[in-house]
Amino acid sequence: MRDVSYAPRTEAVRHIGPLLLQAQDLTATALVRLTSLYNSAYTDAAGSRASLDLLASVVSSSSLAGTDLAHELLANPYEGAEFAGHPADNEAVRTARHAEALPKMSEHLNDAVHQLDLCATGCRYLAHGIAENHVSAQDHRPPAVQQTTGAALSPAQYDALTALAAGGQLYESSTRGLGVTRVATQDGTRVSIATYRALAKRGLVCSDTGTSLFQGQKITVTGEGQRALAEPRPRAALSTAASTAPKAAAAQGVRR
To answer: Which residues make beta-bridge pairs with 185?
Structure first.
C-alpha cells in the first residue's frame, strides 16, 4: 500500500478538501451510471449482473473513500482562539497535538487511497465486461430474445413504437424521487415504462445509456423496430364475452 500523508493544519485542509469533493462527485457519477444501466435493456445481456454488482462496488468504494477523507479532516488539529478566560496553547502543546494527529490522518488517507485503487480496478474490469457482454445486434442476442423479437406486437405496443419513432426520452421522475423511470414522447403519446421495457427486451428500441437519466436518455427505434413498423398495425382482438354474446342471445330467441 502506498504511504501518503499531508502535514496537519492548513496544508491538510487545502489538499484534502478538493479530494473529498472529487470522491463525492465520483460516487454521484457511479450511482447515476448504475441507475441508467439497471433501467436499460443491458440487463438482458449475458453477464450483465456481474457488471452491475461491480459498478455497485465502485459506488461503495468511492463513498468509503470520501468518508475516509472526511475523517482525516476531522482528525486535523485546527488552530483557533480559545474561549475567553482560557489560556492559549503554547508551542509544546501544539506540537504534541500535531504529533498525535499525524498518525490518525495518515491512516485515514491511506485507507482512502486503497478504496480509490479499488475503484480504478473496478472501473477497468467494468469497461471490459460491458464491452464483452453488451450486445446490440440481433445475431448476438440470447436465444430467448431472438424468439420473442419476431412475435406480433399488440396494438398498444405498435402505437408506442410509432410514437417513439417520432422522438422520445427516458428520464428520472422529479415528482416521485429516485428510482422512478418514465417515458416521454415528442408527440405527447403516453407510453408506460412496462411497455418500453417490453419493446427494449425485444430489441425494437434502445436508449443512450451514456447520458444520465436526470438529463434524459434519447430513445432510438432500432432497425428491427423500423421493420416492425413497416408491418400493418395489428387489430385489437375481440373479447370472448363480446364474441359469444350474440350467439347466446340468438340461442335464447330460438328457445322462445
So the answer is: 168
CA nearest to 51, candidates 134, 118, 126, 123 = 126
Q: In the prediction, which pLDDT does 133 show?
A: 66
For residue 134, give the 3-state DSSP assignment: coil
What is the pLDDT, as a whole number, of residue 94?
A: 82
Total residues belonging to the chain: 256
The residue behind cell 417490453 is 198
Q: How far is CA 146 from CA 60, 226, 228, in A?
A: 36, 16, 14
SS3 at position 187: coil
Domains in the chain, number: 2
- Whose CA is closest to 50, among 133, 143, 141? 133
Greatest mean pLDDT range, 67-81, 127-141, 145-159, 234-248: 67-81
198: part of which helix (H) or strand (E)? Answer: helix 193-201
Is the torsion defined by CA of 187, 193, 199, 201 positive or negative?
A: positive
Residue 145 has a pLDDT of 43
At 29-47, the pLDDT tens digits run: 999 888 888 887 778 788 8
Give, rounded to a whole angstrom, the gap between the first and last alpha carbons of the chain: 95
Q: How distant is the alpha carbon of residue 154 from its chain centre?
A: 29
> What letter does residue 139 receive in the DSSP assignment?
G
3-state secondary structure of 236: coil
Edge-first strand order for the sheet with 205-207 is: 181-185, 168-172, 217-221, 205-207
Inside any domain, residue 5: no
Q: Which domain holds residue 168?
A: 155-230
Same domain? 133 vs 174: no
Q: Find the DSSP H helices in 39-154.
A: 48-75, 91-133, 143-149
